[in-house]
Design a protein that fits this description.
The complex is a heterodimer of chains A (145) and B (170). By secondary structure, chain A is mainly α. Chain A is built from 5 helices and no strands. Chain A has one domain. In chain A, α2 crosses α4, α2 runs antiparallel to α5 and α3 packs antiparallel against α4. By secondary structure, chain B is an alpha+beta fold. Chain B has one domain. Chain B contains 2 helices and 9 strands; from the N terminus they run αβββαββββββ. Chain B is globular. The C terminus of chain B is likely disordered. The chains are: A mainly alpha (145), B alpha+beta (170).
């Protein structure tokens, strides 16, 4: 006998596909943010840069946890998804601001140099992540009210 | 404000505050550049007027820099808007400047564009970039005659630009 769907599952079904699409888009964007930071750490030798290097690794680790967590398609994880979305927004927004600041003035003693491809990809992914996850939270909020 | 919101806002505020902190790696401040010889574990090497080590990149050719983008972030070029000045042990006539692709002027010595190293942070006297292989070629401290300085205890000699002597001259 199949168990009856709980309220969370019914709520996910009632709210339609947009939240799931936004959550997936946000998750992918967050994973891209982490991947770019990992590439910069190992590929572009940012591992030697004090403070900034370890922060890049932390960014990758955090982005991986958040991104993969958001991709898990379980309606019962709605509260977890909301928390992960908030974390993703915080991570992406902090990365965006930090990157932008470091282009203009030293950040932890480090100043970046030019808007190379990696930086453009990171800024774009961070912007998409924030927009998608904010929209996801907004649609979730609407579906509850 | 909910606790999680407070954490997110707090983290972002911290990042913004931190942006105003931290001593800069000496890089493209564009101010006057004075170079002199300083002591290091590898001998007498070129340093700026505050004692920060500078390096040459073996990939650079004909006085042209081949270090941009991420390379220039990790190896900030020594830039100046005015003519560089020679301090103790440095040949004034060997100092020069080249125009980088972004229009900034980079200091050269004996034709070698000069760079700082981010891993040295803002600590004078650090030489973590000595004999490092990154971004396609090797990086060396610079000797009094513009030659790449051989690492202390190394039997081999850097391949280019050597015009006599190893470490410990000057």
């Amino acid at each position: 006998m199949r168990p009856l769907p709980d309220e969370a599952v019914l709520d996910e079904q009632r709210s339609g596909r947009p939240p799931a699409i936004l959550r997936t888009l946000g998750a992918i964007a967050v994973l891209v943010v982490g991947a770019v930071h990992l590439q910069q750490y190992f590929g572009d030798h940012f591992d030697v840069v004090p403070i900034i290097g370890p922060l890049f690794l932390l960014n990758f680790a955090g982005a991986t946890v958040i991104g993969l967590g958001l991709l898990v398609p379980a309606a019962r994880l709605r509260v977890v998804h909301v928390l992960l979305a908030l974390g993703g927004i915080g991570l992406a927004a902090t990365s965006f601001v930090s990157l932008f600041v470091s282009e203009h003035r030293p950040l932890f003693g480090f100043q970046d140099y030019g808007y190379r491809a990696g930086i453009v990809i990171a800024l774009a992914a961070e912007a998409v992540a924030v927009a998608a996850l904010v929209a996801y939270l907004a649609t979730r909020g609407r579906s509850r009210s | 404000m909910r606790p999680l919101h407070a954490v997110v806002v707090g983290a972002m505020s911290l990042a913004l505050v931190a942006a105003g902190c931290g001593e800069a790696i000496p890089s493209s401040n564009g101010g006057p550049a004075t170079l002199r010889l300083g002591n290091s574990a590898d001998g007498r090497v070129l340093v700026d007027n505050e004692g920060h080590s500078v390096y040459l990149f073996e990939k650079d050719e004909s006085g042209e820099s081949y270090c941009g983008g991420a390379c220039a972030a990790v190896w900030p070029p020594l830039e100046t808007s005015t003519a560089p000045r020679a301090g103790v042990g440095v040949q004034d006539a060997a100092l020069g400047r080249i125009k980088r692709s972004d229009g900034d002027m980079q200091v050269t010595y004996h034709g070698h564009p000069l760079y700082y190293y981010a891993a040295d942070a803002s600590t004078p006297g650090k030489t973590k970039g000595e004999d490092v292989d990154q971004f396609g070629d090797s990086w060396y401290l610079v000797g009094s005659h513009g030659q790449p300085v051989e690492p202390a205890g190394s039997g081999s000699s850097p391949s280019s630009g050597s015009n006599g002597g190893g470490g410990g001259y000057g």
